Amino acid sequence: MAEPSLRRVSIEEATLPQLIDFASVILGLELPPKPTKAAMQALIETAAPGAREIIVVAKLAAPIATLKTGIEAYADLPDDQRVNIVIPMEPGPMGESEVFVGNNGDEIVILRGKEVAIRVKHLRVLMDARKTVWDQAEDGSLIEDTKREVPAFNIQILGLAA
């Protein structure tokens, strides 16, 4: 089977499925519950400021709805397969610190803002990592009713490592 060809499409001309695919698979972003074209364009522009084009598959072998995205795209790969990722720097006290990842005694340290190749088993740990957040009142106190679990890291999955 021939490899699909890739092409560049402007964010304005991209279809909703293309925007969803790019945001989830390429940028590793969490999608809104009911994505719209405008919401996906805004999400991509926030994650990649200044980006005016996205990369899409020119001809898909299957409808976009049947394609696996995010970590699901890597679920069937062997644990030792390597993938390229970036964990961007973020605002806040931990936003520039290194990220420690361990899996059954196999530990790695990932530098933020750098493209790195890691094993799929470490990617799974990163994707499962959660943190608890709360909204804050004007006085700085936490609003208990707003407590929620969110992904601990904004991971951009760039694809399989060479």
**Alpha carbon gyration radius:** 17 Å
Give the tally of β-strands.
Answer: 9
Strand content: 25-35%
CA-CA gap between termini:
20 Å
Mean pLDDT: 82
Order of helices and strands: EHHEEEEEHEEE
Instruction: Please give the count of helices.
Output: 3
Instruction: Please identify the structural class as seen in this structure.
Output: alpha+beta
Order of strands in the sheet with most strands = 6-3-9
**Relative helix content:** 10-25%
User: How many domains make up the 3D coordinates?
Assistant: 2
- Given the C-alpha coordinates, what overall shape results? globular
Low-pLDDT runs: 61-66
How would a textbook summarize the main sheet? 3 strands, antiparallel
Q: Which short descriptors sum up this protein?
A:
162 residues, 3-stranded antiparallel β-sheet, two-stranded antiparallel ribbon, 3 helices, 9 strands, 19% helix, 31% strand, globular
Structural description of this entry:
β7 and β8 form a beta hairpin. The relative contact order is 0.17. This protein has 3 helices and 9 strands; from the N terminus they run βααβββββαβββ. It is of the alpha+beta class. The strands form 4 sheets. It has a 3-stranded antiparallel sheet. A two-stranded antiparallel ribbon has the order 1-2. A two-stranded antiparallel sheet has the order 4-5. It has 2 domains: 62 residues; 89 residues, no CATH class. The protein is globular.
